[in-house]
Design brief:
Low-confidence stretches: 1-16
Strand content: over 45%
Number of strands: 25
Structural class: mainly beta
Shape: globular
Number of helices: 2
Oligomer: single chain
Mean pLDDT: 94
Radius of gyration: 21 Å
Strand order of the largest sheet: 1-22-21-20-19
Largest sheet: 5 strands, mixed
Length: 334
């Protein structure tokens, strides 16, 4: 069908007129209450992912584990001071769990980008020292994300490869640690952040340019991915990076616009967004890894602690910011 000239011209003009970009959704603001010392690797994207060990008997003596993905693992006190550093090379994501009376720390090991490994350590809560247990093989590919899945009397790990492959392992801690592959899951593109809701047996994984997916964490379950939230440029802006769970909520780093999105676990409902804004300790930008733990951490964090990697901490190298999880929930009306 031929178009009249006037109509055709109008259609051409309409097609050439760019649509106005939809701005990101509004975000509440909170301030950091503390920060860690900067990692030692300067002028580089180096700090990446934190994990938190909460000392229930003495909350103010709790510890933060943070990765310098160019160099190794740091242990910080809640005052942000370095308590220990272990030269573990290129470790990217970190998680921890108490198993059999020991605090096991695991990290995705990228020292060999062709062959993934999981690096394993123990954490002494009294001395804040890390001790290496060695590494276990994670199959071919580049190790990227990692999260732990505590079991009754045991421990499993999900290792996320850079290409979106996810391998689930059963870990054993004899004289030499070992890993047994249980199953393989797959997302289409580059993925990293992951977290396990052990109580509900669910695994959440961030596919950086697509969104957040949920799997049944049980090794015998189907390898079916369910969409939790899509990258839409409003609530969630690419890249979606770190994931954390606390008090029935999933928190995700919306790295593309320096914000964090919150979803309710019960029904995947979007609950709002927030930013850690400029203040005494500075804002967070381009956050990679995050961790949130509920419970008291002392006077500064009586209702839970959030730790977020800060991708821009000039003039110093990158570090991690500490914020009140209770204040965050209040700001969002949770």
């Amino acid at each position: 069908m031929r178009l009249r000239p006037v109509i055709a011209a109008a259609l051409v003009l309409g097609a050439c007129t760019p649509s106005k970009p939809v701005p990101p959704a509004p975000a509440a603001t909170i301030a950091a209450s503390g920060e860690t010392a900067a990692v030692a690797t300067p002028n580089a994207d180096a700090a990446d992912d934190p994990a938190i060990w909460r000392n229930a008997a003495n909350p103010e003596a709790s510890l933060i584990i943070g990765t310098d993905k160019k160099a190794g693992l740091y242990v910080y006190g809640l005052d942000g001071r370095v308590r220990d550093f272990l030269d573990a090379g290129r470790v990217n994501n970190v998680d921890l769990a108490r198993i059999g009376g020991r605090i096991i720390v695991a990290a995705s090991d990228r020292n060999d980008t062709e062959n993934a490994r999981i690096a394993l350590f123990t954490l002494d809560p009294d001395t804040a020292k890390l001790t290496s247990l060695g590494t276990v093989a994670g199959g071919t590919g580049e190790a990227y994300g990692l999260c732990l899945y505590p079991q009754a009397g045991g421990l499993q790990a999900f290792l996320v490869l850079k290409d979106g492959t996810i391998r689930q392992f059963d870990l054993a801690f004899g004289a030499v640690p070992a890993a047994r592959l249980l199953r393989t899951l797959k997302l289409a593109t580059q993925s990293e952040g992951c977290v396990v809701d052990a109580g509900n047996q669910r695994l959440y994984v961030a596919e950086e340019d697509a969104g957040i997916w949920r799997f049944d964490a049980r090794s015998a379950a189907p390898a079916t991915a369910t969409a939790v939230a899509r990258i839409d440029g409003q609530r969630l802006v690419a890249d979606v990076e770190g994931l954390a769970l606390a008090d029935g909520y999933l928190i995700a780093s919306s790295q593309g616009d320096n914000a964090y999105a919150v979803y309710r676990l019960a029904d995947d409902r979007y609950m709002g967004r927030f930013r850690i804004s400029a203040g005494r300790f500075g804002a967070t930008q381009e956050t990679d890894g995050i961790e949130v733990i509920s419970g008291s951490f002392g006077p500064l964090y009586p209702d839970g602690l959030m730790v977020a990697q800060d991708g821009e901490n000039a003039p110093e190298a990158q570090n991690f910011k500490l914020a009140s999880w209770g204040a965050t929930k209040k700001a969002l009306g949770l």
